[in-house]
Amino acid sequence: MNLVEYADRDLLAMDVANLLAGELKSALLARDTVSFAVPGGTTPGPIFDALCAANLDWDRVYVLPTDERWVPQDSERSNGRLITSRLLVNRAAAAQFLPLHADTENPEDVLPELEAQIAPHLPLSVLLLGMGADMHVASLFPGAPGLAEALAPDAPILAVTRPASQPEPRVTLTAPVLNGALSKHIVILGKDKREALEKARFLEPDEAPVTAVLSGATVHWAE
Ligand SMILES: O=C(O)[C@H](O)[C@@H](O)[C@H](O)[C@H](O)COP(=O)(O)O
Description:
By secondary structure, the chain is α/β, with parallel strands linked by helices. The protein has a single domain, classed as 3-Layer(aba) Sandwich (Rossmann fold). 29% of the residues lie in helices and 19% in strands. The chain contains seven helices and ten strands. It has helices at residues 9-30, 45-51, 79-86, 111-118, 147-151, 175-179, 191-200; strands at 2-5, 34-38, 61-65, 67-69, 96-97, 126-129, 158-161, 170-173, 184-189, 218-222. Strands 1-10-9-6-2-3-5 form a seven-stranded parallel sheet, sandwiched between helices. Helix 1 (9-30) packs across helix 2. 6-phosphogluconic acid (6PG) binds at residues 39-43, 66-67, 69, 79, 130-132, 136-138.
């Protein structure tokens, strides 16, 4: 793992957006289409605000969430809503969005269809992840039922998790899919997450799921 520290959160957002735009451009030189997985939550918004203006062939970029909360797509808690309203605007409005959601009560009902839409776009070209202070990434939460299956090397593309700490079921890309990304970035803000990351390095993925994706990843941090 490579750790990059920034003087403040604004600089981090600008620099990470530039870095991601450069990586997407390079990937587009080698392939007709590229895939870009991004997290929800509060951290990525300012990165999206800068990245959406990048001058690249967005119409050849497939954007997908790393995980989704099973709420209506117009809910404030929907990662799809965050991504479509804050990243897929400006120049990036030309990108294709691959939702991890459908209007069914249970995510299990549509998992095969969602997986079939994603499969042609793997491995992920570029991956951006957030991390919780509990050391979860995407929706791989410590102690959640089904975590071991989602961390397994032969896990399918998607898993459903129902973490006790969260108000709704989640759909998440599994560890092998996240780990298989050709480029991996994790963005963390604040002292608590930095300490959690240090602690995670001595733990196993079932206690600290972030460790499942740390190898070869660049972690970007600002206080
Ligand atoms: O839907 C989600 O919640 C995420 O994709 C999740 O993995 C997120 O990246 C972390 O929870 C960090 O969230 P914050 O950025 O809000 O701290």
